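step=encode ok
step=design start
structure_in=
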């Protein structure tokens, strides 16, 4: 049975200083075109995550390349940049990816500031029911990638890259700010080896669980903006908690497969006979943002 996470009075979301962190990464690493000399990919989609480390250590580029093979989908490639191959060592790694994209890995010999990564651990499926707790981390890797294609293709390629970095590192956690969660490295690698969106969705969207005033459970996805889709608020009777989480990710996967949101008033269900209405409501964490709400009977 799932356990509620955070305050019973409502939702908690990590206080994400995403713009500031992205600025730090850009200042540290420099403009992509200046580092690689390559033209920008057609889609200017930038992905950012942090690999939390037990000790400050930059992985070997060759180890990341080798690990990538076990996570890559068809057409995805990762090659150590020519400049780095000629000058081993240092505090950064540069990679070229398929379609003119690139990825950068930089070592930061300190924890992620403001305990942000620690607070986000509660929003990962890997942490539900106390199955995993984030250990202390002494350093982290900033992983940035700019990959062409649709948001789904870009995020999929980034997930494969990130999993390879995790595999080649002394990782104790994987903090994805846009996902709203910090994941168990083993959990991350296991799901990243599956290439369908349904399997990877728990990596792309964290979850916040709260209790409604009438005792029902509310499950809110946290990362669907990455795919240019709205988050889902699923409300379920407390007795159906075991059904709620799988259904939430099934519904998200359905919308991902459509490539567009459902309309207000549409219905969804686990069988042809079940017709649960979809309604758009203000998000519990940001009233300016609309989420789609579905209630289980």
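sequence_out=
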């Amino acid at each position: 049975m799932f356990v509620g996470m955070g305050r019973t009075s409502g939702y908690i979301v990590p206080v994400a200083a995403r713009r500031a962190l992205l600025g730090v990464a850009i200042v540290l690493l420099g403009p992509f075109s200046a580092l690689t000399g390559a033209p920008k990919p057609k889609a200017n989609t930038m992905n950012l995550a942090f690999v939390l480390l037990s000790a400050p250590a930059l992985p070997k580029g060759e180890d990341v390349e080798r690990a990538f093979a076990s996570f890559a989908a068809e057409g995805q490639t990762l090659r150590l940049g020519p400049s780095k191959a000629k000058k081993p060592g240092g505090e950064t790694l540069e990679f070229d990816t398929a379609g003119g994209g690139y990825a950068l890995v930089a070592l930061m010999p300190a924890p992620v500031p403001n305990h942000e990564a620690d607070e986000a651990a509660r929003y990962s499926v890997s942490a539900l029911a106390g199955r995993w707790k984030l250990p202390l981390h002494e350093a982290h890797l900033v992983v940035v990638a700019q990959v062409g294609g649709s948001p789904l293709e870009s995020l999929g390629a980034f997930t494969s890259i990130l999993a390879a970095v995790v595999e080649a590192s002394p990782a104790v956690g994987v903090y994805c700010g846009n996902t709203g969660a910090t994941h168990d490295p083993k959990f991350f690698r296991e799901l990243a080896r599956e290439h369908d969106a349904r399997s990877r969705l728990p990596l792309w969207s964290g979850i916040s669980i709260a209790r409604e005033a009438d005792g029902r459970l509310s499950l809110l996805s946290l990362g669907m903006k990455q795919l240019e889709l709205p988050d889902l608020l699923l409300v379920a009777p407390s007795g159906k908690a075991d059904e709620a989480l799988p259904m939430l990710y099934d519904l998200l996967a359905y919308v991902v497969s459509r490539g567009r949101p459902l309309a207000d008033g549409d219905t969804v269900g686990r069988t042809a006979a079940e017709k649960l209405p979809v309604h758009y409501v203000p998000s519990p964490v940001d009233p300016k943002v609309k989420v789609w709400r579905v209630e289980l009977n």
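step=design ok
step=annotate ok -> The CA atoms of residues 120 and 181 lie 5 Å apart.
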